[in-house]
């Protein structure tokens, strides 16, 4: 087992001396992260991102952890699976961000780790960069012991008769409980001290001793190594905003036992419930009950069971009231959505327009809203030559086919994000992609993808940060609506048949990786691409019909920028590209 601890540097301590490495074991290792911020370093909500920057899978964004608010010792539940092959030279970059006030993400700092050295050597030190020298980061690389079970566990848990940890001066206070699920570490059986890795953490319920937490979904490989009998520990804590949560009780169980203990007498079935215990004054005491309201296994990305669980929890009358309220909100948002139809796919020529900012791009939709509504009413919105364009298809899906339980409850930004990804789907002929995906499903956009590890990635706030669809048969031009994905950091669409880049590509000021190699791009590269000042990797090689000048981009990018293009051709110029074909 590899452990990394840091205090200015990263040190890897392998208690066994060497981790066993097997060739071609896809997802054979998983990386878990936690951190400890110094008292003088104030953090609002921290999360970490992991990206492969060297090796066969260079440029692969492994994803991001959840956001943990107001904690100086965040212990992230999200783990990252690595496709590790010895001798491949895989290097992973870990970055920590502060999601300030839920609106902007500030990068605190980062570090780079060579996975093979972590796996084979007893110790290694890696220098830090940025403000991360003020932070201790703990990483762990564990060998996965994958079982045969696939899919997701969809579960719903309720607490009963919880011991009150916050009675207050007059006995009127109540605890704020949340629960955490941990899996037993594979090496724990060989030692006297049990080691548990957190894999899921619920929301906290304020002032409640009988909390009904939200239903949740977790992949079986991540939850229990695909083994339904693998030991799990469910621990309930009393939430503290400073991160010093007080344990209320715990129980050791497994996925199989959770399925056997599902409540059969309503949501207060104490006979089937687990008893929480905690050591008090030298003996184990009962501190409450945990009712398993749902514990079913479904395919990855399935959301139907979750919606059924919510309906059972809320009750028919209450659910109807929420639907009515949601429909009212949706009617208010509908004009804004219709206004988005004006974003028609643009010609793939050199962009000579002034710089487009996020604010001006968003204001374009609002400014033309009244005109769009008036023209739409006069001409008949879903008729004529626009009836089959991607924007109209996306709007029609959003208003008539998408699940009301999602559309009516999403915020405006979530709705725009959902619309933009739907336009992307139709613009690239999503109905004819090879391999099935959950695109345009009722699930959150963050869960759109497939069983092959590609699809959409989001940050802890639910904002799209990347989408990855290698060799999936995408055709057509990328739509301008991807400019609505303001937090987008990576576009990974190599080995498809994409023909054009929108001129608004320069609006994606957070974009770091653009992978469009081995497509069928034609025409000029949009001039606005020079505005991508945060771009770190550009791969547009093997597009023989693509022309243009990338030198304006070269003058704006960072020194460690890596570019690959067909720059040996006289009609494509790129002085900063390190790989010219």
From TrEMBL:
GO terms for cellular component: plasma membrane. The keyword Transmembrane helix applies. One of its GO terms (molecular function) is calcium-dependent phospholipid binding. It comes from the Eukaryota. The keyword Membrane applies. Keywords: Membrane, Transmembrane, Transmembrane helix. GO terms for biological process: cellular response to calcium ion. InterPro entries: C2_dom, C2_domain_sf, C2B_Copine, Copine, Leu-rich_rpt, LRR_dom_sf. SMART domains: C2 (SM00239). Pfam families: C2, LRR_8. The chain crosses the membrane at residues 319-343. Residues 1-128, 131-268 form the C2 domain. PANTHER family: C2 DOMAIN-CONTAINING PROTEIN, COPINE. This is C2 domain-containing protein.
């Amino acid at each position: 087992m590899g452990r990394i601890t840091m205090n200015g540097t990263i040190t890897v301590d392998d208690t066994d001396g060497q981790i066993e490495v097997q060739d071609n074991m896809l997802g054979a290792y998983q990386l878990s992260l936690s951190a400890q911020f110094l008292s003088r370093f104030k953090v609002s909500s921290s999360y970490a991102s992991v990206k492969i920057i060297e090796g066969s899978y260079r440029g692969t964004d492994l994803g991001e952890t959840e956001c943990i608010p107001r904690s100086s010792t965040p212990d992230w539940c999200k783990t990252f699976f690595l496709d590790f092959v010895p001798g491949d030279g895989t290097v992973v970059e870990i970055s920590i961000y502060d999601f300030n006030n839920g609106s902007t993400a500030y990068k605190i700092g980062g570090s780079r780790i060579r996975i093979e050295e972590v796996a084979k050597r007893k110790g290694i030190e890696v220098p830090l960069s940025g403000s991360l020298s003020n932070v201790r980061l703990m990483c762990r690389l564990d060998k996965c012991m994958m079982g045969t079970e696939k899919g997701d566990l969809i579960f719903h848990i309720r607490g009963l008769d919880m011991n009150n940890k916050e009675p207050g001066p007059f006995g009127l206070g109540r605890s704020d409980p949340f629960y955490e699920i941990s899996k037993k570490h594979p090496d724990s059986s060989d030692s006297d001290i049990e080691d548990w890795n957190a894999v899921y953490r619920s929301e906290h319920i304020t002032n409640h001793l009988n909390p009904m937490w939200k239903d949740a979904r977790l992949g079986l490989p991540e939850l229990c190594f695909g083994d339904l009998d693998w030991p799990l520990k469910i621990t309930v804590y009393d939430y503290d905003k400073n991160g010093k949560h007080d344990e209320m009780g715990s129980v050791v169980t497994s996925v199989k036992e959770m399925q056997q203990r599902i409540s059969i007498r309503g949501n207060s079935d104490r006979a089937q419930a687990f008893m929480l215990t905690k050591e008090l004054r030298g003996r184990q005491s009962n501190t409450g009950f945990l009712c398993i309201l749902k514990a079913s296994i479904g395919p990855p990305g399935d959301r139907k069971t979750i919606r059924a669980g919510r309906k059972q929890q809320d009750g028919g009358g209450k659910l109807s009231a929420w639907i009515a309220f949601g429909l009212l909100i949706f009617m208010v948002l509908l004009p804004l959505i219709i206004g988005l139809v004006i974003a028609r796919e643009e010609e793939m020529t050199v962009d000579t327009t002034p710089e487009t900012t996020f604010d001006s791009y968003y204001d374009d939709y609002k400014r033309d809203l009244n005109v769009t509504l008036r023209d739409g009413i006069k001409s008949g919105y879903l008729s004529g030559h626009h009836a089959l364009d991607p924007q109209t298809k996306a709007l029609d899906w959003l208003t008539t086919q998408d699940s009301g339980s999602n559309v009516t409850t999403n915020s405006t930004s979530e709705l725009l994000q959902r619309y933009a990804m739907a336009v992307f789907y139709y613009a690239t002929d999503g109905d004819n992609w090879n391999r099935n995906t959950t695109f345009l499903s009722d699930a959150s956009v963050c869960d759109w993808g497939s069983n092959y590890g590609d699809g959409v990635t989001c940050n802890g706030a639910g904002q799209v940060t990347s989408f990855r669809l290698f060799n999936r048969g995408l055709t057509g031009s990328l739509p301008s609506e991807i400019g609505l994905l303001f937090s987008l950091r990576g576009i990974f669409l190599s080995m498809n048949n994409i023909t054009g880049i929108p001129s608004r590509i320069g609006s994606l000021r957070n974009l770091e990786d653009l992978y469009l190699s081995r497509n069928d791009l034609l025409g000029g590269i949009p001039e606005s691409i020079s505005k991508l000042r945060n771009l770190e990797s550009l791969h547009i090689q093997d597009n023989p019909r693509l022309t243009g000048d990338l030198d304006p981009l070269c003058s704006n990018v960072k020194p460690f920028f890596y570019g690959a293009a067909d720059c040996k051709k006289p009609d494509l110029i790129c002085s900063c590209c390190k790989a010219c074909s």
